[in-house]
Specification:
By secondary structure, the protein is mainly β. It folds into two domains: 55 residues, no CATH class; 146 residues, Galactose-binding domain-like (Jelly Rolls, Sandwich), CATH 2.60.120. It is globular. The two termini are 19 Å apart. It comes from Pinctada fucata. It holds the Pfam family PAPPA.
Length: 214
């Protein structure tokens, strides 16, 4: 099969068509939260607790208060409430779905955990709002050149001036070894830093390229 590869070299855009063996084609894998790293507050340990974000969405698309979603502690309607969630494996995250089921629109920032244990912003906004319906929030993310298994989500409760509930979080991306399951449509090649290629990356003209989606 023939794929078009676009990359920048010395300020020039080169377009190259060539055949890629099936083994190097990266495919998407979807992961739901498997553990909780931390949180700013929670209403209780069980119902309404941070643990309710684990697993597949079980409230969405229903809108309204539910004990099966994460709820902040009473009176914690601040601009910097957060939950830190983890996944079963590290992947190059391409997309995220945050299932908001009460007072949607409060997500202010999303961060990923880098290999040095630091949180790096991959999306943020100053335009938080209150939406009286549930939604699957899927913002355009800044992609990082490292795989991660952890996400930090900050919510601003000040606009709603009350509780904000999150039912579940799902990430979609590429395994470092490229051994994923999912669609192979619209694959492109994105530059990766360094000259030593990792499994699942393509080596071309002394550079490494990560197969992924734009």
């Amino acid at each position: 099969m023939v794929y078009e590869v676009k990359f920048s070299s010395f300020g020039l855009l080169a377009i190259l068509s060539f055949s890629l063996p099936t083994a190097v084609l990266a495919q998407d894998v979807a992961l739901w939260v498997s553990f909780i790293r931390g949180y700013s507050s929670q209403y209780s340990e069980g119902n309404y607790g941070a643990v309710q974000v684990k697993g597949k969405a079980d409230v969405y698309p229903t809108y309204g208060d539910s004990p099966k979603a994460w709820l902040q502690a009473g009176g914690h309607f601040t601009a910097d409430e957060y939950i830190e969630v983890g996944f079963a494996e590290r992947i190059y995250i391409e997309r995220i779905h945050i299932y908001e089921t009460l007072n949607a629109g409060a997500v202010k920032e999303i961060k990923s955990l880098n290999p040095f244990g630091q949180w790096e912003s991959i999306w943020n906004t100053t335009q938080v709002k209150k939406i009286a319906s549930s939604r699957m929030f899927s913002p355009h993310l800044e992609r990082k050149n490292y795989p991660t298994d952890s996400i930090h989500i900050t919510v601003d409760c000040t606009v709603a001036n009350t509780y904000v509930e999150i039912d579940a979080v799902e990430v979609i991306g590429i395994r470092p070894n490229g051994n994923n399951q999912g669609s192979t449509n619209n694959n492109t090649v994105m530059p990766s830093s360094g000259n030593t290629c990792s499994p699942g990356q393509l080596h071309f003209r002394d550079s490494c390229y990560m197969i992924g989606r734009r």
